[in-house]
Design a protein that fits this description.
The complex is a heterodimer of chains A (1004) and B (472). Chain A has 1004 residues and is mainly β. Chain A contains twelve helices and 55 strands. Chain A is globular. In chain B, the strands form four sheets. In chain B, strands 1-3 form a two-stranded antiparallel ribbon. A two-stranded antiparallel ribbon of chain B has the order 2-8. A two-stranded antiparallel ribbon of chain B has the order 4-7. In chain B, a hairpin with a 4-residue loop joins strand 5 and strand 6. Chain B is globular, with a radius of gyration of 27 Å.
Chain lengths: 1004, 472
Amino acid sequence: MIKKFTLAIITVVMFCSQSVLAQTKTVSGVVSDQDGVPLPGVSIIVSGTSNGSSTDFDGNYKISNVSASDQLVLTYIGMISQTITVGNQSTINVTLQESLESLSEVVVVGYGKTTRRLVTGAISSVKSEDINRTPVVSADQALQGQAPGVTVINSGSPGTSPQVQIRGLGTFGNSQPLYVIDGIVSGGLNEINPNDIESIDVLKDASTAAIYGSRASNGVVLITTKKGKSGKTKLTFDSFISSQSVPKKLDLLNSDQFRQFANETYGLPNRYTTDLASTELNTDWQDEIFRSSIMHNTNVGLSGGNDTAIFNISAGYVDQEGIIINTGFNRASLRANSEFKIGDKFKIGETLSIADSEMKNEEENGDRTLIEHLIKSLPYTPVYDINNPGGFGGPDTTLDNGSDAENPVRLQTIGNNTTETTKILGSLYASYEIIDGLNYKFQYGFDRSTAQTNIHRPSFNEGINSRAAAEIDQSTNIFNSNTYTNSLNYSKSFDDVHNLDLLLVAEKFGTTARNNQSQSSNPLTDAVTVVQGNATVTNQLFEYGLISYIGRVNYNYDNKYLLSASLRRDGSSRFGSNNRWGTFPAVSLGWILSEENFIKDSNTISNLKVRGSWGTTGNDGSTDYVYEAGLISTYNYIGLNNNVGVSNFGSANPDLKWEEATMTNIGLDLGLYNNALTLSLEYYNNDVDDVIVPIPNVASDGLGAAFTQRNGASTNTKGVELNIGYNHDNGDDFSWSANLNLGTSKNKATDLGDLLFIESSIFEGENLTRITEGESLFYFYGLETNGLFQVGDDTSAQPNAAAGDIRFVDQDNSGTIDSGDNVKIGDPFPNFTYGLNFSANYKNFDATIFFSGVSGNDIYNTNIYDLEGMTRLFNAGTTVLNRWTPTNTNTSIPRFTADHSDNVNRSDRFIESGAYAKLRNLTIGYSLSDNALSSFGNDTLSKFRVYLTGQNLFTITDYSGYDPEIGGSTTVTPGQQSEAAGVGIDRGVYPQPRSIILGLQVAF
Amino acid sequence: MKNIKIYFTGISVLIIGILISCNESDIELTNPNQLSTETYFKSSAQLESSVTAAYAYLQEVGNYARYQFYINDNIAGENYAAGNLEADKVQMINRDIDEANNGNNQYWDHNYKGIGRCNFVIDSESSFENIDATEITQRLGEIRFLRALYYFNIVTKYGEVPLVLSSETVAGGRPKSSITDIYAAIVTDLQFATTNLPAKGTQEVGRATSGAAWALLGKVLLQNDDASGAKTALANVTGYSLVDNYIDNFTVSGEHNDESIFEIHYDESTGAGDSWNQDGLGNSETSFRAQEYSGWYNVKPSQTLLDEFEDGDTRYSDTFYSINDNDNGTMTNIYNKGTTTFTSGTIGPDDNPAWRKYQNLDNRAAETTESGINARVIRYADVLLMKAEAEIRSGGTESVALGYLNEVRNRASVSMPAISVSGAPAILDAIKHERWVELAGEQSRYLDLQRFDGFTYLMPIPNIELQANTNL
């Protein structure tokens, strides 16, 4: 009270003293943005004085005691500041231009926001324009190539979330970043309309991420959805339609070639003698499975508000047919965000989104993907055969020599396999300004989702493959989360140079997940598609609770010397009782050299900042109750009245704790020539300790379970990130900009405790990947090949081998090829990932070219096993016609041999380079000029743009498969430990489509 | 005033807010998908189930369903490899079992897992609620009996091993304990069991009884060179008698007869299930014995065993099928309810006698992997012979010892002439012979060799332990 009063007196005194000194007047006017929307809260200060004012809700300002020689400085977050000499004007209307240079751009951080200038950690920000430039159904897909250090592996399967890794891989388990949508932690972005997103901010280092504590070590992705702006009500309409097709086909044998191949190898199947006519059919299974498909997407938005309320309402509908038959994804979504002011100090608001989606799933069967069945399907097999129950053709038990690939068209189209998801995500919040600068905020966030997968598999008989009774499988996953956040924020400047921002948060987070599954079969009819009769029902419940206390101090001296420190304490139900609470500290420092006098006046350097951060974050895994050893009730012993035995299974591990990452980041930001050229450079070094691994139990402890999950390994990931931008905009008709971002990452297992290795990803009975101390994670493991044996070569190391077989390298010089000769033969993770973006405007035309790519990674292509392996009589690639024979010795394809399969041993025969550069996007757009808009739209129209986009027009790669982008497969993953364990193993990946898109954007 | 009110409101809201966040029970969750240790042992049925679980590992492939008989019978020289015997079982016959040997690993694993189930119950005693005190001691008596039996299985095959008497794990595993300490633990458990278990007749059929505990204690003490202790213990085995028909000890119909002291349950009706991979869990409660011995004829009785039988001892034809009398004078080649005859070429890969004990072939044409015949761990004939041995080894009366011995020989179906030799060595020789013949193929010979012949062969501690235990 007293302080406020003193301040008022001082202000009055200062005003008085000024008025004596000069002849003064009052100036007024309206401040608006480029679109003519009035800007409230713009700060207007008379240069060199403390005389100032700000605009009201309608953008009006009034400032008195100014003289003609005074200069008005107008500043507003996100806009270029303007300095205007008053002169003889008394009404000065100002249009502020949106700032293209990034320093004043708003950056969303955990539990708050700041400006790019004051950031001391590593944050990559992606704006809505960049997200929507590439039409996608999920925003994380659009992150690819947009932010250095963010690796995105997309899938062509509509509705399938991409795999996102921030700064490489540092764990063997859950490697997903934490997704936070408007302050609410929520898993994945599939149910969020990308059109509703204002910005995505990726927190990559400890100083920015540690505020999320035990869930932050894989990085944090903050999603901010669009809020309304006060002013004119704005209606927007965006729509596009796209035609998609498969960019590449494999060379498979046709009927004639197959006949030749079969005749020379396994011998012609009996069909050639019993039913020769039927072998003349020529089915191109790729044509049957792949199709041209349509995607369309329409969004309508309404936003606006006044000085007491703002709102943003939007609705969207997207429907993407997959390029594989009977796959697709559609989503209808609705969002309503609003905020209300009650008096000067009290604010209340909400965010709400409802989305309904349906995904038609890709099929697999018998541990073989659809693509694998496609490759193996015989070219003379008809797609349809009305004589078979179910109506599909397929290989016969006796006529086709045991060839048993499933008709891929039948597999993919018969019956139904869809997942319907409904998600409601939102928050309610209220904030109150207790005293000037001190704000209290309460937020309640909720996430409700129900995903129901309905599978109906009717009976059929296509020959060797059949299903006697219809199978019905319905599973429902119901997920609930609630977040209660209390925060207290104090933000104040002292003596104009001490800028302080304090934050205290107490938060409670809890989730429940229920999985219900029911299955039945129906031998009577295929018409009933629901579970009936003797059903197998299973039901599971998982809960997760987290209590957190957070504190953060941001201090800077004169916007030159920056300090940030944060501390989070997490109590989590995912940790054992001995380690239930974890503390995650972080500090960072920054020095803006360009504010120092020795640089300030430089014409070249407009911005120079160095910064460094250190801190710890955690990874609490993705599963609940890992530390617990419960009781199981199947230790049965017959012949006793009570023959159900109940006892412990496994060992509780009350010491189980989060995986702990210690992260160091050093960064440099440079802006040259008035920030036309910007450069950011980051170096990071992350040590992860206490990585959770399954440690074998001691047998004499008699625990029952073979393993206990323990914190027993360490990893290190380090890398460099670079972002260079050039922006040429002189206000001419032609402007252009370019941006290159690049991130490197090198991971390695530094300690595995007593474990010699960890293996995973089984293919044909062998684990393809390994983790050993000192090597990169999940490297490919196998034999090294050295060409083919030729006639007369010494095959003593491989007694089974003859001329035309693969020669393996005897790594241990033992004289024989055995398990001791397996070595590292590839690395699934790239050395670096990059994105390259050009955009240009000429008059009303705009154009964008966007490349993204990866380099230095390998792919284990299991399809080669089917295309060139010749292990059984299936269809194959045309390369088998070039196999080694006594007359065709100059080839890399080994000979045919029916009786031993060493040629298909796990080896670098299946390893290919996974490097690629994709032309992700090429767009040309045309917008109506302001004149045309006003005459055409009668002043109601503010934007009208049409555009044409080509997506994935070409890919530069040496990879022989459909698509070099291969994430951990979600369909066929026997023995897989984690999503990351399957990266780079191509088991028949769903290729990404090539698309031609025509779009329209209108705003009123 | 107004400001104070606002501060007050603000602070109240904050306090309420923080209170919402402060309830620590929100992060102390237990898995609702399975029973939890914290909430268990709150009824007698729950305690009973935990004891049931401790029996389960006696039934497994590492134990009486498979490797208990292979390890004992093969190492003791009662078998030879007749059919396509797998390498790990050949190692047993050759007495060169290695650390990777499958049977060795399974035997170790399943006996220690049985011990684990026992330790779990014993460790949980403090959390028992709503259970009658007498019942608690009875159940603990069963548990201590079972743990003693598992340890006896282990110590006699491995010698020094880790002595694990609690569910608590030790980083890197426990080191070996001395044989003395292990026997001391076994004896302590059995002493508890003898005083707290009910006698046969009052105890539910199939569960451990005081008689079983005394009998096992006698066996253990005898094995550990305490003949007088054994004599005292065995004197307490009362209420049992020999059945008239020797063969009734190895059939389904003869289960839990007057001679039976402790059996492992098998039941053909539970089916094969996942019996090859059984690991204490599930419903595969059948034995491979019948299929392995005279189904596939993987092993057949060794010539030394056949030769040990006296002429005219009917236990020969009760124990073996044969297609000639092999000088013994008794012979059975009829099976399948008397309808089928073994002839040359039908009794396995060679024409030597095959096992009849624990086979189902008397009642059917062929064996399956799902035999339901209970395994007799201890029966009264064994006790009588142990009493005779203890009597002599403790310097007791020779006539008393011969009385026990001749009681066994005088069983109605056996009726062999009484032995009347004198002097401890001669009587011990007679007992050794009688045990060999009476208990052929009943996992007795291995222990007898240790006591009578200074046999010292032990299995090496298997890989399943070595790979994780760094303190051995």
